[in-house]
Amino acid sequence: MENQETATKVTKRARFFIFSFNFLMINCLTSFNILSVRAADAEPVLSVVQSAENQQQWTGITKRLQSLGVRYCVIPLAQVRSSADWGDRKVLFLPNVETLNPAQAIALESWVSKGGKVIASGPVGSLSAPGVRQLLRSLLGSYWGFGLDETQQIKPATTKPQRWANQKELFGQVRGGVIIPEGGASQATAVWNAQDNPAAVVSTEWSTLLGWRWGTDAASSFELDNAWLKAAIDHHITASSSGQQKIPGADSRCATTIETATANIPPVTPVVPQAPFVPRAPRPSSPAEAIDQLEQTVHWNVEPNSNAPIDEKEAIALQQELENLISRVESAHLAASVQTANRDEAITSNPQSLKEDETRVASTRPGLSSQSKEQAITQARLVAKNIPQLLANKNYALVRQQWLATRTNLWKHFPLNRRLAPAEIRAVWLDRGTIVRAGGEKKLAEIFDRLAQSGINTVFFETVNASYPIYPSKVAPQQNPLTRGWNPLAVAVKLAHERKMELHAWVWTFAAGNQRHNQVINVHPDYPGPVLAAHPDWANYDNKGNTIPPGQTKPFFDPANPELRQYLLKLFEEIVSEYQVDGLQLDYIRYPFQDPFAGRSYGYGKAARAQFQQLTGVDPLTISPSQTELWQKWTEFRTQQVDSFVADVSKMLRQKRKDLILSVAVFPLPERERIQKLQQHWEVWARRGDIDVIVPMTYAQDTARFQRLAQPWIASSQLGSTLLVPGIRLLSLPNLAAFDQLQLIRDLPASGYALFAAENFNHDLQKILNSTQGQVLSVADEPIPLRQPFETAVVRYGLLKREWQLVIQNEQISFPAINIADFNNQMEVVEKALTQLAAAPSPAKLLTAKASLTRFQTQFRIWMREAATNNPYQVKVWENRLATIERLLRYGERRSQLR
Description:
- By secondary structure, this protein is of the alpha/beta class.
- It has 29 helices and 21 strands.
- It comes from Nostoc piscinale CENA21.
């Protein structure tokens, strides 16, 4: 029976490919008369990319193209290795292509820079590596933000409607997603008829991104799909209709299957865009170099050589980001002034002496002129003020160049040689690669020395990776072969505790293996890892029967399998029982990435299917997202498997050692989208009190985007007493940019940060951190919020008090005279209550501290009304720091069980 089904499938596939081949041959040889192209251009003007993701949709895609009458060539994505492989057609269409590798992305960027135009649809590149996704954002001027929960009406853009996209046939009902514009050259061409009218189509001079999966009947109608594709092709061909020349370096191929039929057709070549939109890099000679160059070239939205127009919205954003950075620099200097003042003496500084000190500090900093902080800020404000005038004169490139230079100059005026950090969680992920390279205790001790000297007080130590424990385990099938001969976990615990640092075991939870790790240890790429190899029934599958979803590299366990759950609990119990770790961090505590509305879902393990069928009478493999009620039950079932396992781990840890900290590394996607795509509902874990710390992976290559990622979660009121510690990814992040993100975190109501990862912790960053958070006080001299939340609250409040005293004494903020005495009295009341609570915690003292802090917060807003008018950023920073103290009290209440 199984062989018969296989034969039938092969026959159907053969017929399909024969049909596709014949159809492509016809398309590439027939005349193209639908689009506004000169008769001389009687050749394919469109190349269509075929990939693993759109293979299932290919019939719908080709039927639409056939109906439209567009002459096109097919580019198999797997064959693309250089810009020449994209061909020399005028327009390249990427329908629902979600995975490109770095070499392909760089090749695409190079192809477009030579005059190519790109049309894309759906969540383009969303399954690619972070660097690829960033390049595609720059390339398309936008990216897929999130899917809509239901069908929505597309309507014309509310501002600056574009003529090429105003035909009534373009607007109808579509199931798609929100497109996020990025950069001044991007323009919303159409919007969704939803709250705030988010973008449905975004275009630039060289690209158009359609916010739905083109060619799928479940997303859009035949007619609307074709109307948009025709309009976009017309638009981009019209933009290139004069002065055409051959795209340098491109050949005349369509695809291997139709190369002969098109070999004699003369090439059509669009003009080169007037301005590049990303900096150019030398062509990589190897995949490794491609990745390195990609990370080095695609970080910033503001490109110095781009003369693309800047609209009013982008101009306001540029001004606001400069103002925010100015405020962060001022806030950092205030914190540094307070911390470097003699703790045993009253603050007697005056504004003039502070200015002289800052000038002296600046003049001794390597590579920096003697310009004072005030001079740099005055210059920066002038640049921000002049932006509208430069825009009026259309000096767009000059605006960008001045903005970037001003930002760099402001970064250099952070007080980088003075301590300014409060008591906070300063964590770093110590990755398996760095551990393996250390090779033994001596080199690992050097790493811990560097971390301790730079003020790091918490280490997430990679203990289980791809089912391999880094230590000799009695529970797991085998130790990681890369660490045989020594026990890195035992050594790390000893080294951390000698330096008064926290050591948390970082473990992979439901990710069972890793193809990349297989390459390192020289086993077959498809090896599922030692646990799944021994217990294949514990495997999870997607809806096509794959253990590894397309475009991904890791097989996953089935969280519904009771034997698997018991194994993991036993393994984690071994770690916390045999080693004096301070905590456990769950990574991969989720299902793999999915997109159910694109026909990709995951979770069909043997145990999960049996349990769901027992609950509902339905095999989950037979249902689809269109069956709303059943699909919701299936999503809830999978989400509950993760939720309940987190609860089980939490219960086990509390029973074994009540002092253990449980943290989770999670994705900062919107809650509803995250549940649909990952089944990771960490808000529930926080509200139930299962976890102590949430570490969202808020990785971004500039501070503005980092803030957009992190601030909603930091400000959330849905996390109970759980602390939130944003993650910062160091890979390819300039050191001053990393420091800027740290300073933003310190100005928000957060309890600390986590750096990913130790392998990117370079010498220059270490020097900055040594001075700003590790120089004056050792790690042992200040409390860690995880362990001493009440003591941390006292220290942080003491720094706040000293800041207020400083600015009042120097008349840097304005208070009505009648309020000064009241302000000072209330300030002392709060400090006394916090100090008494930290000295001898009790329910009564906690209640007193919380009540006095709440009263003070209420009055503070009244006292600061006038100051908030003149310096809204700093006043908000103070409010955020009071909110952090409030959260520390809530966290301490739960940890100390003072209820």
